[in-house]
Design brief:
Nuclear Transport Factor 2, Chain: A; five-stranded antiparallel beta sheet; 5 strands; about 15% strand
């Protein structure tokens, strides 16, 4: 049996070790805070880059503009991760050839639609209000999007960023008023595959048709 003095010594030892753990844990906080700051800065840099491209106006060709937007997609977005997620559970069952075909056409859709989406972003001023981690692989940058024309009310926007250790922070989704763009796309894709008896090729063909329609609309 431990006496009173022995209990106190043991209690002090536990308190000392606990304090050491808290101090050690605190050493990791600056790096973690930097990770959150990097995520917020990434969103700000993307918007700044878009503004820079838009400011060039007619002095930049359409081809050069598309190339610049493609570069932004590769730099700021996890295109591969977005592609895989958009296909839902059917991605794993797809063959290598099907994955490659879908990835190519889906990237084309993303790039073509990006021009319109980015233009919409530039019509709003984004003010971050909160940056938080969700586990050790996801960071949310929440803010208010204010319409510069004053025509639309302020909107809550959440940028979702992948923050996997030893990998660059990249954007994977944009949530507007609780509606996830990526999850919405995934739901549409998986529903289409189900309607076609689980045929992944049906998704590829549907995406190709969408790509052609988007291109035609953008050229008008």
């Amino acid at each position: 049996m431990i006496g009173t003095s022995g209990f106190r010594i043991k209690q002090r030892l536990v308190m000392f070790l606990t304090a050491c753990l808290l101090i050690a844990g605190g050493l990791g906080h600056p790096a973690f805070a930097d990770r959150l700051s990097d995520a917020e800065n990434l969103v700000g840099k993307l918007i700044a880059e878009l503004e820079r491209i838009e400011a060039q106006g007619d002095s930049i060709s359409e081809e050069a503009r598309k190339k610049a937007l493609s570069g932004l997609m590769d730099s700021y977005f996890d295109v591969e991760g977005i592609t895989r997620f958009s296909a839902g559970p059917y991605w794993r069952a797809a063959s290598k050839e099907q994955r490659e075909a879908y990835s190519a056409v889906f990237r084309g859709v993303l790039l073509t639609e990006a021009s319109t989406r980015f233009q919409q972003i530039l019509n709003f001023s984004f003010t971050p209000t909160k940056v938080e981690a969700r586990g050790d692989k996801l960071i949310l940058v929440t803010g208010i999007a204010m319409d510069n024309s004053g025509e639309f009310p302020d909107t809550v926007v959440i940028w979702r960023l992948s923050a996997i250790k030893n990998a660059p922070i990249q954007i994977i989704d944009l949530e507007i008023e609780n509606i996830s763009m990526l999850k919405t796309q995934q739901d549409e894709n998986t529903a289409l595959i189900k309607r076609n008896g689980g045929d992944f090729d049906a998704l590829i063909e549907a995406m190709r048709s969408r790509f052609e329609a988007v291109k035609a609309s953008a050229s008008q």
